[in-house]
Design goal:
The complex is a heterodimer of chains A (281) and B (304). Chain A is of the alpha/beta class and 281 residues long. Helix content of chain A is 46%, strand content 10%. Chain B has six helices and 21 strands.
């Protein structure tokens, strides 16, 4: 309802099932097959278009401190003027603004967050395909890099820079810092136990849908179906023209495709968090 | 002594220097000028607001805009613009004047600016490129300048139909490019670039000498899109053209709150009925601007 806290953040490190969750929600809310290029959710936190539309300005001219302050205003405005929940994708780690010490993600319009987590060993391979970078570069620049970030500060792109930190720090930031509820969902559970896992997420979001509706939305957004849609009509979020966004979606690919040294380096940095989420084997 | 300028073909008389605008003599235009002055901006509109947004408040004849720490702006009756300075960076303060205040004044005069860049394809004849921000309007126009077509406008222009033909008036002679684009081009000299401000790696270039303030004939409009894996150019029918024109009205999100639905409908319908239009798509994450410009040149410009 207008004036309520309407935003549900769909938070994740990149390539951890965020688009899958948004597709599922789009199918659930519309009771239709989702259009992957026009999902009925609420955009992305780092998108410049939200700021442009709600504040009537060209976001490229804003300084970093202005971006951080103004973006809170923008999402509060969007939430206030929406008569339904907004499911907003976010890859940013949950950090504080250097300009005013407040969280980048505003509390005021937030209902709750769903955090999607995936084994960092598989994330490495999926991110490597997404960015068209070799796995070594992905480990050094992203997975193990405490200063990891997406997009860059001075770009003409559609998104603002996103602070990722390293994989564990990203998870930790969403576990420790928010003052609102965060429901954690493992990608692997979505794959192997989809009905129970999606249903628990739907309940945590406060949505009221029947088991049949949930199952129907799961069926409409099976990985192979989304991949087929991308093959047929393309996907605007695919950054790698040589490959596809919905690439393999498998669990445990790392066992065959990462070298022992790569596995060891990732495990060394992320052991506590991998243990905490059942990824230590 | 006030400064005299033109923007979108309309005289602007200002107590403040407005360096992005084209200077004009004080008696050449017969249109009612837009008067600009520094002064106190009211906290509220005189009449009831029809839309209240975080920075903008407006109704049919009044528009108030405030960027915290930068400036407050008040535009009334398409004629008077007041700027109350809060910050200390004049370039930053004027950015919102050039964009929002001028657009609001045009809407108040029942004129519609579009989000377009454009190049001259012949003397006094232009081809326009319409697209939302960050879809490549400036870069497409820049690549065509490498092919010998002069720049008409970088970001916005006023469009209207007169005696069955579409005419455009350019906003003002300033284009803005990211540093990485500046490095890839040879039209504008590195020594002419003006740092916009702050941490931004984006630069302004004036093209006052080449600027045409008069109305020019529009030979067509190309709607730019980022889509698919290949460059694709198709002709656009009238209905689709109407929809795309509406989507590319500059600050078109204000029109309902300004009660300009009828003006929008009439303007867009007239334009779409006579304006040759194309959709041109290029891949989103691959740099294809050279071949994109080549395709536009061979498939559109050579034929209009």
């Amino acid at each position: 309802m207008k004036g309520d806290k309407n935003i549900v953040w769909l938070a994740s490190y990149p390539k951890s099932g965020n688009t899958w969750m948004r597709s599922f929600l789009s199918a659930l809310l519309t009771e239709k097959e989702p259009d992957i290029n026009d999902m009925s959710t609420g955009g992305i936190f780092s998108g410049k278009n939200n700021l442009e539309r709600s504040l009537d300005l060209d976001p490229v001219f804003l300084r970093q401190g202005q971006i951080e302050k103004f973006r809170r205003l923008s999402f509060s405005y969007l939430s206030d003027h929406s008569d339904k929940p907004l499911f907003v994708k976010i890859h940013d780690a949950f950090t504080m603004s250097e300009a005013d010490g407040l969280p980048l993600v505003p509390d005021e319009p937030t209902k709750m967050a769903v955090y999607l987590i995936r084994n960092p060993l598989d994330v490495t391979l999926s991110l490597s395909n997404h960015l068209d970078k070799d796995t070594e570069a992905v480990i050094e620049k992203f997975i193990n890099n405490p200063a990891g970030e997406f997009a860059g500060k001075n770009t003409a792109g559609h998104q603002f820079n996103q602070i990722l930190l390293n994989w564990s720090m990203h998870v930790e930031s969403w576990k420790k810092n928010p003052r609102f509820a965060v429901h954690f969902v493992r990608y692997e559970d979505l794959r192997f136990n989809p009905f129970q896992t999606f249903r628990a997420a739907v309940k945590a979001m406060g949505l009221e849908h029947t088991d049949e509706q949930i199952q129907k939305a799961i069926n409409a957004t099976a990985f192979e179906k989304l991949k087929k849609k991308e093959q047929e009509s393309g996907f605007a979020e695919n950054m790698n023209p040589k490959s596809s966004f919905f690439y393999k979606g498998q669990v445990g690919r790392w066992k065959d495709e990462l070298s022992p040294s790569q596995i060891q380096r990732i495990k060394e940095v992320h052991e506590p968090m991998m243990r905490a989420f059942g990824y230590w084997e | 002594m006030p400064y005299h300028y033109q923007a979108y073909g309309i005289p602007v008389v200002s107590s403040m220097e407005l360096p992005a605008l084209i200077p004009a003599s004080d008696n050449e235009a017969d249109l009612q000028p837009i008067m600009v002055e520094a002064g106190a901006v009211p906290d509220f509109l005189v009449n009831a607001p029809l839309e209240i947004k975080p920075f903008s408040t407006f109704n049919e004849n009044e528009f108030r805009y405030e960027v915290p720490g930068v400036a407050k702006y008040y535009v009334v009756d398409g004629q008077y613009i007041t700027i109350e300075i809060l910050g200390n960076n004049l370039d930053e303060i004027l950015l919102y004047f050039y964009s929002n205040c001028l657009a609001a004044a045009l809407f108040q005069r029942n004129l519609i600016p579009f989000h377009v860049s454009g190049v001259f394809v012949k003397e006094n004849e232009v081809l326009l490129f319409a697209a939302p921000s960050r879809t490549g309007k400036s870069t497409t126009a820049l690549m065509l300048q490498h092919k010998g077509y002069d720049l008409f406008t970088d970001d916005t222009a006023l469009l209207y139909v007169h005696e069955g033909q579409v005419f455009a008036k350019a906003s003002y002679p300033m284009l803005r490019l990211w540093q990485n684009t500046v490095e890839k081009q040879s039209i504008y000299s590195d020594s002419d670039k003006q740092h916009i401000y702050g941490e931004l790696d984006k630069y302004g270039f004036s093209f006052h000498e080449k600027f045409t303030a008069e109305a020019v004939l529009v030979k067509g409009i190309v709607f730019l899109e980022e889509r698919g894996a290949d460059i694709q150019i198709t002709e656009t029918g009238t209905t689709r053209c109407m929809k795309l024109l509406v989507e590319n009205i500059y600050r078109g999100q204000w029109l309902d709150g300004m009660k300009k639905q009828r003006v929008r409908f009439e303007n867009v319908t007239k334009l779409a009925n006579v304006l040759p239009a194309w959709q041109a798509a290029r891949p989103r994450f691959t740099d294809t601007f050279d071949s994109f410009a080549e395709a536009i040149d061979s498939q559109i410009i050579k034929k209009v």
